[in-house]
Amino acid sequence: MESDPLHSPAHHHPNSKTALLSFHTDSSITTSAAKPTFQNKVLLISLLSTTFTAVIAAVSFAFLFLSATSAAAGESKTIKITTTARSLTKLTHPIVILISSDGFRFGYQFKAPTPNIHRLINNGTSAELGLIPVFPTLTFPNHYSIVTGLYPPHHGIINNYFVDPITGDKFSMASHEPKWWLGEPLWETVAKHGKKAATYFWPGSEVIKPDWDCPSNYCIHYNGSIPFEERVDTVISYFDLPINEIPVFMTLYFEDPDHQGHQVGPDDPEITQAVINIDKMIGRLIKGLEKRGVFEDVNIFMVGDHGMVGTCDKKLIFLDDLEIPSNWVQSYTPLLAISPPPEFSPAEIVAKMNSGLQSGKVVNGKHLKVYLKEDLPKRLHYSDSYRIPPIIGLLDEGYKVEQKDSNKNECGGAHGYDNEYFSMRTIFIAHGPQFAKGRKVPSFENVQIYNLVTSILDVEGAPNNGSVSFPNSVLLPHA
User: What is the DSSP letter of 429?
Assistant: First the structure.
């Protein structure tokens, strides 16, 4: 969870062409009809040698070409074998385990040896350059987008903390009243179709919905002190139930490496250790499933909710410099959200703020741009809710907003920035019968995951912002 209140690397493929044979032709060389001279003899020997070399090279090239063609044919046969979903060997129906490693920035998987995570990658399907979170790139909005397929304005969780402008009620990460949580999360979708779901922590899973009452044996209330091992073992234990009683959908949540990321930023050795520990938890899960003979039958999704970027207090912007009162501010950083009293014009405030920020009189002012929410870039999908305050500020990567200078001089990590920043990307790794081995797919937004899960479980999902056809681009079809 949050610890505070509130792009792509280019792949260079050289395309240099090296000639197999190189001939030099000199038109000035002439031959005599008379007896060959010494120079002509040398030329003749040279030509014969070159011709012989050419023949050998041609034969070698032909051999290599035929070998490559043969290998390609064999490769083609291998691909044909894996172009359809694998049959279940022990289970009688598909099962999905959805795992979240909070704040697992894309690239963390390469920080240290992660054999278990890479086992899933190498034998499954992954987003080659990471999973794209929704905006704002915060924990609660993104976790709920993953399980509903909806952008935050549509599922209602527009921030980790916010105020309902009509009622004045305040939402926090401890708010479980159904009025906040719109949309239909996957556990409710599954239950609505008469199937069992189990949640071991996930934002929104404790909320009572029309078809989900958070059953005590299958819905664990959040308690961050419960060891990761216990969480994994509980999920594994569900597979000791009779096959028809095993939940078809399960969630599993880890707070790391987000917890460490906020304290030390993304590049500290603490992050590396946290990633190694997450890998051990994945290994523990795999071992438990293998022991029960169901690992290859289960669909495992490993995702994160957002990335992480380093921040330091030298990258600060102070609202006091813009004469914005603190009681107007709903959130400071990295998402600046301002709700002025009704007698003030939001448009005039935005104009004055941007003018001040660009004046050169505000420290780091050029690194913040303020918008009326309806004028935000459409790609952010962050305007269609009355819950979103009328004024939204977008910060450059790594910058923060505070009310006034406190001279803390602290460095750490943050997220919540524009989801276009590569540092905000997280991971998508999927392993199971409907995922091709070793396949890389282009990056996509996490609202697509809902339809992937409902397609695997063969249940009709609720309306959402994902594409109905997206599963066809990721999942193997059934034979």
Answer: E
Answer whether 96's CB lies under 8 Å from 249's CB: yes
Give residue-wise pLDDT tens across range 213-263: 999 999 999 999 999 999 999 999 999 999 999 999 999 999 999 999 999
List of residues 6+ apart from 371 with CB closer than 8 A: 350, 391, 392, 393, 394
- Per-position DSSP letters for 297-350, written without gaps between them: GSEEEEE-S---EEEETTSEEEGGGGT--GGGEEE-SSEEEE---TTS-HHHHH
HSE-up (13 A, CA, CB side) for residue 125: 20
CATH code of the domain covering residue 201: 3.40.720.10
Q: d(Cα 203, Cα 445) in Å, to the nearest integer?
A: 19
Q: State which residues form the domain around 325.
A: 313-410
The answer as to whether 200 is a domain residue is yes
Tell which residue, 174, 221, 176, 225, has the closest CA to residue 5.
Answer: 174
CA 89, distance to chain mean position in Å, is 30
107 and 169: one domain? yes
The 10 Å Cβ neighbour count of residue 279 is: 20
Mark whether 114 and 192 lie in a shared domain: yes
- Model-level pTM? 0.83
What are the catalytic residues?
139
